[in-house]
Every structure is written in C-alpha cells, then in structure tokens.
C-alpha cells in the first residue's frame, strides 16, 4: 500500500473517495475522451496523425461514459458510476457494496513519464491495446488494491483504481483493473500504432 500511496494518493484514498468525494458538475463537452460510449475519442483530423494525437490531453470528458452497461457487467459492476472530482480531476466511482470499488480518473496533468519516477519505477510496464500502461500493486502486502495507469497523450493519463473492501486479494483487484482498462482503452486518445 505504501508504494501505491507514493505513486498515486488516489489509490490509498480510494475508499474515502468512494464514500465522501464531491460530486462533479456536468462535463463541459470538450473534445477528447468520448463523453458517450462509442463516441469518437478524437476528431478525424487528430486521429489521422499519430504525432498530433499523442499530444492531445483527454480534455474535460465524462469518465462515467467510458463504460457502457454491457461493459460494466463484464467488469462486475452492477450500477452506473457516480461522477466525482478527486484532487481537481474528473473521476467516476463505482461501488459494489461489500465487495469492491472501481474509480476511473482522468489525469490531464501527468503522463506516464511523470508517473514512472521514484517508487513508481518498480511498476509493471504493460501494453493494453495501442496504449502504454503501468500496473501498480504490492503483491507482498496483498492489501486488495491495484491500479492500471493508461497513457492518454504525452501529458495525460487515465487511472483505473480497484480496491477490495476486505483489503485482501491484490491479484483479484489487478484482474478487475486489467479488465476495466481493456474495456476503456479503445476510447482513449494517444494510442500508438
């Protein structure tokens, strides 16, 4: 848990964020990550040039719109998420009472390079679809938390944080985080070809 707390305070505060985060207002509708499931992740002019799309941040979008009802079911989530603002970033919390919580956060200020420093250097590097990613978990602590951080441009990322309510089962939390990351990845800007 210490590694997660150093990497991303959102991970260690996930339980608190689920229980008492501030409700975010309506999304601004700016281009970036599709506010509706199936919406294009970027205008056609941006997606035609890989170098341009990798520099576009996710912009103010609706993180709760990244999972359709069918995708939520695939990820073991039975109800729509609740929009939140966590540390100034837009997020969506999904709470499965007595089981687990999932938070999807749009970080428009930190790309993977910024997140890959210090304690984060030990994070596992992944490729999910066309996006670079990091998986952060402490298997030894087995504290039931796991985070997958997806690149969404050079200076932006999308974080999928999972926390089991019994604070055990890190492997299970990582399986769930991987599943959610795989479901939202095609909707994110900044993928590599």
In total, the number of domains comes to: 1
Radius of gyration: 15 Å
Might you state the CATH topology name? Protein Transport Mog1p, Chain A
* Quaternary class: single chain
Can you characterise this structure?
The protein is an alpha+beta fold and 193 residues long. It has a single domain, classed as Protein Transport Mog1p, Chain A, CATH 3.40.1000. Helix content is 26%, strand content 24%. It is built from eight helices and seven strands, in the order ααααααβββαββββα. It has helices spanning 2-7, 9-12, 14-20, 44-47, 50-53, 69-74, 112-115, 170-184, and strands at 82-86, 89-96, 100-107, 124-128, 131-136, 145-151, 157-164. A seven-stranded antiparallel β-sheet has the order 1-2-3-7-6-5-4, with helices on both faces. The protein is globular and about 35 Å long. The model is unreliable at 1-60 (pLDDT under 50). It holds the Pfam family DUF3558.
What's the gist of this structure?
Residues 1-19 form the signal peptide. Residues 27-93 are annotated as: Disordered. This protein has 193 residues and is an alpha+beta fold.
Helices and strands, with pairings:
Layout: H1 2-7, H2 9-12, H3 14-20, H4 44-47, H5 50-53, H6 69-74, E1 82-86, E2 89-96, E3 100-107, H7 112-115, E4 124-128, E5 131-136, E6 145-151, E7 157-164, H8 170-184
What keywords describe this structure?
single chain; 8 helices; alpha+beta; Protein Transport Mog1p, Chain A; disordered N terminus; 193 residues
């Amino acid at each position: 848990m210490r590694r997660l707390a150093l990497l991303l305070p959102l991970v260690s505060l996930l339980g608190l964020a689920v229980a008492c985060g501030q409700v975010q207002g309506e999304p601004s509708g700016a281009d970036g990550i599709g506010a509706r499931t199936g919406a294009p992740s970027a205008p056609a002019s941006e997606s035609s040039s890989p170098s341009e799309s990798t520099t576009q941040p996710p912009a103010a979008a609706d993180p709760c719109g990244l999972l359709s009802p069918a995708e939520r079911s695939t990820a073991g989530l039975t109800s729509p998420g609740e929009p939140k603002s966590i540390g100034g970033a837009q997020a969506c919390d999904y709470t499965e009472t007595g089981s687990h919580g999932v938070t999807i956060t749009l970080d428009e200020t930190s790309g993977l390079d910024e997140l890959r420093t210090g304690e984060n250097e030990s994070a596992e590097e992944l490729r999910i679809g066309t996006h670079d990613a990091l998986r952060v978990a402490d298997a030894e602590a087995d504290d039931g938390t796991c985070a997958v951080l997806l690149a969404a441009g050079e200076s932006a990322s999308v974080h999928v944080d999972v926390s089991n309510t019994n604070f055990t089962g890190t492997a299970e939390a990582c399986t769930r985080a991987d599943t959610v990351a795989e479901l939202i990845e095609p909707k994110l800007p900044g993928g590599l070809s």
